[in-house]
Design a protein that fits this description.
The chain is α/β, with parallel strands linked by helices and 217 residues long. Helix content is 55%, strand content 13%. Helix 2 runs parallel beside helix 3, helix 7 packs across helix 9 and helix 8 packs across helix 9.
């Protein structure tokens, strides 16, 4: 059986010893190195090429996130699991941006940690259940911001006109709905087409639907 080669990175020796003792109980794992700083972690990774690095965030000097970014950039085949006591949003998203394959809180049970390592080694991304909801919230927030930015150049009235265009309304119907003159509606539609960079009402309507205009009004 091919063993998964692990590097443990934590500035507390007691934590490293505890993790090593836990992992040595499982024949599928081999702890091939320990490091107490980011520099040691980067240097050891280059020398021994572990399969998985268990990385603490709070390290003296350079942070574990910076070490993670360097390792994943230089050694893309090496998986990094951030193992931390902190569930702070900024750390979580910084770790994801740095290329971490997993983000696990130290409060995790031993069996769950083993499953996490095995999941990451199989190529799966893994987040601790305690922080998963935050990721979905951030994704939803980013999507809403992207949708809103799609109409950033339109005035509030232009958005209302575009919404009615997307519903298939004629200029006369739009004018009646919004208490405007037909000429004013034509001007609004021309302005909308120009600002969105589309050629006709059908393209404008498709753009409105694609970027979820209803949620932006």
């Amino acid at each position: 059986m091919t063993k998964q080669r692990l590097l443990i990175v934590d500035d507390h020796e007691v934590v490293r010893l505890g993790l090593k003792a836990l992992l040595q109980r499982y024949p599928q794992f081999e702890v091939v190195g320990e490091a107490g700083t980011a520099k040691e972690a980067i240097d050891l990774t280059t020398r021994i090429k572990p399969d998985v690095v268990l990385m603490d965030i709070r390290l003296p000097g350079t942070s574990g996130i910076e070490a993670c970014e360097e390792i994943t950039k230089t050694h893309p085949d090496v998986k990094v699991i951030i193992l931390t006591s902190y569930a702070e949003d900024e750390m979580l998203f910084s770790a994801i941006r740095a290329g971490a394959s997993g983000y696990v809180l130290k409060q995790i049970g031993g069996e769950d940690l083993i499953k996490a390592i095995e999941s990451v080694e199989r190529g799966e991304a893994l987040l601790d259940p305690a922080v998963t909801q935050r990721v979905f919230q951030e994704v939803r927030r980013a999507v809403k911001e992207e949708e809103a930015s799609a109409f950033a150049n339109l005035s509030t009235q232009e958005k209302h006109v575009l919404l009615l265009v997307a519903e298939g309304r004629t200029n006369r119907e739009i004018a009646k709905e919004l208490y405007l003159g037909e000429g004013t509606v034509r001007n609004y539609v021309s302005s909308i087409l120009c600002k969105l960079g589309v050629s006709n009402r059908a393209e404008a309507a498709a753009y409105a639907v694609e970027h979820n205009l209803k949620e932006c009004i």
